[in-house]
Q: What sequence folds into this?
């Protein structure tokens, strides 16, 4: 099963790569997933620039075709996100809006970070477009309040026991849902 870790923030000074690096390594060591990180800053999608509706999957832009392939091969996703003004980063919403069928029937988990709210409002705002795209956003998540207190002088995230336990629970649920949904996708798309 393939797990794609998506770094949602693209702004200068972001901490998403630090958080994602920890989670990627943790998932490799504590799950059966084949893990890959997708950094939206590096992928650098412009504001949606496809003439056709994503449901048609008639992509004209090379960056869309590449993004489609990256998402299509995933079975599960973990979005690593901060919270911007009570919501998700615009780059994440834009990246989700580029595609349609590539997201369908797949599971999405969350690693959010921030101040006292730990990015939880961003997670809630992502769930609506995720379900509209036919995804299963799970309730089990990793939320890190005051994340800066867990980043050491070398710029490495050092989680506490609570964070690791949350990651274990989320990885278990991601695996269960990914397996179930993969079977569902195979049935639906074979019969269609």
A:
């Amino acid at each position: 099963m393939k797990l794609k870790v998506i770094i949602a923030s693209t702004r200068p000074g972001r901490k998403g790569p630090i958080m994602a690096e920890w989670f990627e390594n943790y998932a490799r060591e504590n799950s059966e997933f084949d893990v890959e990180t997708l950094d939206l800053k590096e992928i650098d999608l412009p504001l949606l620039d496809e003439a056709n509706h994503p449901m048609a999957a008639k992509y004209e832009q090379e960056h869309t075709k590449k993004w489609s392939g990256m998402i299509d091969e995933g079975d599960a996703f973990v979005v690593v996100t901060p919270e911007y003004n009570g919501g998700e980063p615009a780059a994440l919403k834009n990246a989700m809006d580029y595609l349609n069928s590539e997201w369908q029937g797949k599971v999405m988990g969350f690693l959010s970070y921030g101040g006292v709210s730990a990015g939880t409002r961003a997670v809630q705002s992502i769930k609506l477009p995720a379900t509209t795209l036919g995804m299963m956003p799970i309730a089990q998540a990793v939320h890190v309040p005051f994340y800066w207190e867990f980043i050491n002088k070398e710029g490495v995230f050092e989680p506490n026991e609570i964070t690791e336990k949350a990651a274990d629970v989320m990885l278990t649920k991601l695996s269960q849902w990914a397996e179930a949904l993969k079977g569902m996708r195979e049935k639906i798309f074979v019969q269609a």
About this structure: The longest helix spans residues 161-191. The radius of gyration is 16 Å. The chain has six helices and six strands.
